[in-house]
C-alpha cells in the first residue's frame, strides 16, 4: 500500500507587547527556508527580506543573530504582530480540475525583551529573552477533492519557542551572542480520510484525526564583526533539534472497529533542521546601508516522520494504521539569498526594502498539498518611525510567490486519489511592530548616579577677615 499520510508539518503599544510576549503563536505558515520554516520575526527583518544578519540592532535580533543585541542600551521591549495568508492553486488534468486551499488569515505574534546593566559591566553585557514561532504550518482544503483526501485536507503545526540569550561586546568591532532555545510543539496534526476501501474495495471512507505535542531544547549562536566603519559581517548558527512528540489518533466511521469509532496512542520524532547564515553589510554613508545574506538549511535531516500507533484495535484497523503511519520524506538541503537595505530620510523616518530567493526542500516525489513547497521569490518594503525618544513604530509588507511546480508521483493513487498537477502559491505577509526603549534606566539606578547637589557657597567669618 502506498504511503498515505504525510504530516508537516505570536498605552496600546504596551498591550501589544504583552500579547506578543505572553500569547505565543497558535499557527504559522511556512514562509522561511523552504519546508515548514516560519521566519517572520520582526517588521525590520521582513521589510529587508531578512537581509539583517550583519546589521540588526533590535531586540528581535535574538532570533536571527543574538550578537546584534550587544549594542542595545538599558531596557528595551519589542512586539511584532504578523498577519499571514497563503493560497495554493493546483491545476490538474483530471476529473477534479482546478482546486485551491482556503486563504485564512492567521496572526503570528512575537515578543522580545533585552536589558543592559550599563556601567555594572562597562556596557558590554546584554541579557535577553524572546518568544516566537520559527516553524509552523496551517492550511485547509476541500475534503472531497482527491488531491488531498488521503494526504491531509486540514494540516497544522502549532508551536512556539522561548529563547533566553546573552550577548557580549568584546571590543567595538567584535560582538557575540548565544542562548538556549526551548521548542514547544503544543498541537501538531492533520485530518484525512480513513481508507476503509484499502481492505474492502468500495467501502466508504471514514475520518482520521491526529493530534500530537512535545518539547525539546536546542541552541543558537551569532557573531558580528566590524573591521572598518563602512563594512560589517555577521554569522548565525542554529542547532538541529529532534522533538519527541506523542498524542492520539482518533478514527470515526471505521468499517472494522466495534461501534465504528476508536482512539489509539501515537508517537513520532519531528526533526527540525540546522541553519547557518552569513551576512555582509556595506554602509557607503551614514544614511544608507545595503546588505546581502546567504543561508544554508540542512533539511535533509528531516528524512522520515513515522507516526506509530501504540494500541491494537482490530486486525484490519491495525493494518491500515500501520500502512498510513510510514512516511519517508527525504527532504533536500536548501539555500537562500537575501538582498536588502535601508535609507534614513531623517532622524525619525527610515525606509526599507528587499528581495529574496529560497530553494525548495520537499522533493517532487514526496510533495503533497499539505506542504506545497517550491522555489520562492519575494519582494518586501517597509518603514520605521521614531515617535519619540522612547517609542518607535515599524511596519512592512512582503509578497512571496511559490514558483510554478509540476508534480507527478504515486502518493494516494492506490486509493483513487492523486496529488499530481501544477502547483503555485501566493504568500501575503504584513507585520506591525512597536519598540519601547529606556536606554539609561539602569545607570540612573546605580548609587551615586544622581546629579550631585550644588556646592554651598563658603561664607567667611568677619573675625577671620
The proportion of strand residues reads over 45%
- What's the alpha carbon Rg, rounded to whole Å? 26 Å
User: Could you report the average pLDDT, rounded to the nearest whole number?
Assistant: 85
Give the CATH class.
Mainly Beta
Q: Tell me the count of domains.
A: 1
Could you name the key traits of this structure?
single chain; mainly beta; Porin; 14-stranded antiparallel β-barrel; 19 strands; 8% helix; disordered N terminus
Question: Can you put this structure into words, describing what you see?
Answer:
- The protein is mainly beta and 465 residues long.
- The protein has a single domain (12-445), classed as Outer membrane protein transport protein (OMPP1/FadL/TodX) (Porin).
- It has five helices and 19 strands.
- The protein has helices at residues 12-22, 43-47, 61-64, 315-324, 441-445; strands at 75-91, 99-100, 106-115, 125-132, 137-140, 154-171, 174-194, 206-228, 231-238, 241-252, 261-272, 275-285, 288-297, 308-309, 334-344, 349-358, 376-388, 391-407, 421-438.
- A 14-stranded antiparallel barrel has the order 1-3-4-6-7-8-9-12-13-15-16-17-18-19.
- 47% of the residues are buried.
- Residues 1-30 and 451-465 have low confidence and may be disordered.
Give a brief outline of the structure:
This protein has 5 helices and 19 strands. It has 465 residues and is mostly beta strands.
Amino acid at each position: 500500500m502506498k504511503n498515505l499520510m504525510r504530516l508537516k508539518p505570536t498605552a496600546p503599544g504596551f498591550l501589544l507587547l504583552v500579547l506578543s510576549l505572553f500569547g505565543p503563536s497558535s499557527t504559522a505558515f511556512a514562509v522561511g527556508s523552504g519546508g515548514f520554516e516560519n521566519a517572520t520575526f520582526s517588521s525590520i527583518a521582513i521589510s529587508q527580506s531578512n537581509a539583517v544578519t550583519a546589521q540588526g540592532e533590535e531586540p528581535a535580533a535574538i532570533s536571527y543573530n543574538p550578537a546584534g543585541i550587544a549594542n542595545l542600551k538599558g531596557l528595551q521591549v519589542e512586539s511584532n504582530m504578523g498577519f499571514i495568508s497563503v493560497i495554493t492553486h493546483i491545476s490538474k488534468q483530471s476529473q477534479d480540475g482546478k482546486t485551491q486551499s482556503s486563504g485564512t488569515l492567521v496572526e503570528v505574534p512575537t515578543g522580545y525583551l533585552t536589558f543592559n546593566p550599563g556601567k555594572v559591566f562597562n556596557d558590554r553585557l546584554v541579557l535577553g529573552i524572546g518568544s516566537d514561532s520559527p516553524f509552523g504550518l496551517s492550511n485547509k482544503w476541500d475534503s472531497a477533492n482527491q488531491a488531498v483526501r488521503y494526504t491531509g485536507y486540514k494540516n497544522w503545526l502549532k508551536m512556539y519557542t522561548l529563547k533566553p540569550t546573552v550577548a557580549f561586546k568584546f571590543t567595538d568591532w567584535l560582538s557575540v551572542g548565544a542562548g538556549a532555545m526551548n521548542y514547544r510543539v503544543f498541537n501538531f496534526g492533520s485530518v484525512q480520510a480513513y481508507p476503509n476501501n484499502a481492505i474492502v474495495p468500495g467501502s466508504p471512507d471514514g475520518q482520521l484525526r491526529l493530534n500530537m505535542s512535545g518539547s525539546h531544547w536546542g541552541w543558537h549562536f551569532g557573531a558580528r564583526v566590524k573591521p572598518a566603519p563602512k563594512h560589517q559581517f555577521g554569522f548565525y548558527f542554529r542547532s538541529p533539534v529532534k522533538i519527541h512528540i506523542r498524542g492520539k489518533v482518533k478514527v470515526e466511521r471505521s468499517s472494522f472497529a466495534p461501534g465504528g469509532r476508536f482512539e489509539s496512542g501515537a508517537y513520532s520524532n519531528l526533526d527540525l533542521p540546522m541553519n547557518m547564515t552569513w551576512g555582509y553589510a556595506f554602509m557607503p554613508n551614514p544614511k544608507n546601508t545595503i546588505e546581502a545574506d546567504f543561508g544554508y538549511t540542512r533539511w535533509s535531516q528531516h528524512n522520515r516522520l513515522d507516526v506509530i500507533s501504540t494500541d491494537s484495535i482490530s486486525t484490519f484497523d491495525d493494518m491500515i494504521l500501520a500502512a498510513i503511519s510510514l512516511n519517508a520524506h527525504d527532504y533536500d538541503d536548501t539555500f537562500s539569498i537575501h538582498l536588502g537595505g535601508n535609507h534614513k530620510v531623517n532622524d525619525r523616518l527610515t525606509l526599507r526594502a528587499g528581495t529574496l530567493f529560497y530553494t525548495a526542500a520537499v522533493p517532487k516525489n514526496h510533495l503533497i498539498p499539505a506542504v506545497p513547497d517550491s522555489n520562492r521569490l519575494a519582494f518586501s518594503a517597509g518603514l520605521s518611525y521614531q515617535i519619540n525618544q522612547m517609542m518607535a513604530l515599524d511596519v512592512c509588507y512582503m509578497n512571496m510567490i511559490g514558483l510554478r511546480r509540476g508534480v507527478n508521483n504515486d502518493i494516494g493513487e492506490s486509493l483513487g486519489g492523486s496529488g499530481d498537477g501544477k502547483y503555485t502559491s501566493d504568500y501575503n505577509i504584513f507585520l506591525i511592530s512597536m519598540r519601547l526603549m529606556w536606554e539609561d534606566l539602569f545607570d540612573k539606578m546605580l548609587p551615586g548616579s544622581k546629579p550631585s547637589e550644588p556646592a554651598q557657597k563658603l561664607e567667611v567669618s568677619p573675625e577671620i577677615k
